[in-house]
Design a protein that fits this description.
Strand order of the largest sheet: 2-3-11-6
Number of strands: 11
Number of domains: 1
Largest sheet: 4 strands, antiparallel
Structural class: alpha+beta
Shape: globular
Helix content: 10-25%
Length: 148
């Protein structure tokens, strides 16, 4: 049975890592064309009540999962450890943002494929035209939802 997944997340935490003793979240969020232009010009952008600087950003802009340069860029990110992959729904279909359920239960599987994880995150955000992937301290995640 095909299950339509929710696509109304305001942000998606791809994973959490421990870096230099601090817990860091890798986050994907939609951005506007104005925010993309600001980043292109070297400016920080405000997401929620938190400013995001260039040294926090992995990538931003329009994501084309058919473009070899975009695929290579995403695959070079070191989010996934050798010991533990990331979990996404089993049989995930990016184009329809669905997965297969068996006995009315959604299965999940572990993957070491960055593209599969980013496609799932992008789908959960309702496939925005522009998005950003960046790192932030876990204890600052709620500030991304603040509107001040």
């Amino acid at each position: 049975m095909e299950i339509k997944l929710t696509a109304n997340h305001e942000l998606f935490v791809i994973t959490k890592l421990i870096t230099f003793g601090k817990e860091i979240a890798i986050v994907m969020m939609p951005i506007s064309e104005k925010q993309e232009n600001a980043l292109d010009n070297g400016s920080e952008i405000k997401l929620g009540s938190r400013w995001i600087a260039a040294d926090q950003i992995f990538c931003y802009g329009e994501m084309n999962f058919d473009n070899e340069d975009d695929i290579q860029l995403i695959n070079n990110f070191e989010w996934i450890t050798e010991k533990k992959g990331l979990v996404i729904p089993a049989n995930y279909d990016y184009d329809k943002h669905t997965c297969e359920a068996y006995d009315l239960k959604i299965g999940h599987h572990e993957t070491f494929d960055n593209i599969k994880v980013v496609k799932y995150a992008h789908g959960c955000l309702n496939k925005p035209q522009r998005s950003i992937i960046f790192k932030i301290k876990v204890d600052e995640l709620e500030r991304l939802r603040d509107t001040e």
